[in-house]
Specification:
This protein is an all-alpha fold and 174 residues long. It is 79% helix and 0% strand. The chain is built from 7 helices and no strands. The N terminus is likely disordered.
Amino acid sequence: MKTYFLGLALLLSCAAMAQTASSRASSPGANQGDTGQAAKKAEIRHLIELTGAASVSADALRQIIAPLRNGFQQVPEEFWDTFIKEVRSDELIDLVIPIYDKYYTRQEIQDLTTFYKSPVGQKTIKVLPKLSAEAIDAGQEWGRIVADRAMRKLRDKGYDKSSSMPSPDSPVGQ
């Protein structure tokens, strides 16, 4: 549920940024810099398409729907089916282009494109989703190990598992 709201907030933030960027681009006083800016945006679009970032994000959004369906059973199935059909990667690309534009220069976009066209870049594109998923799993396992270790230490000090208070016969605080 928290992931859904985080994703929704991210998408809404991207939409607001894109709207602001497009209103700036369409304002009067356009100059020759607009041509360079348009070229940069086209290069960003190419980079995003090359890496498959938009389709991965759209796929992740579709995966978020499954637990939401279970959590909001009062929402008709037709809504979820329609929602999934309405997910369009090109719209997501339009929303994230201003974000890439904000953080990368045109030269950096070109360098990234060169990298992702290289053999190691192509391999990165292929393995990164699997690598990320496995890293998340490893992080969750590590979190369980750390939590177990912390709980053992607290139990050794007399803290009861079901309470944040020390047990009555605990030597803690005496």
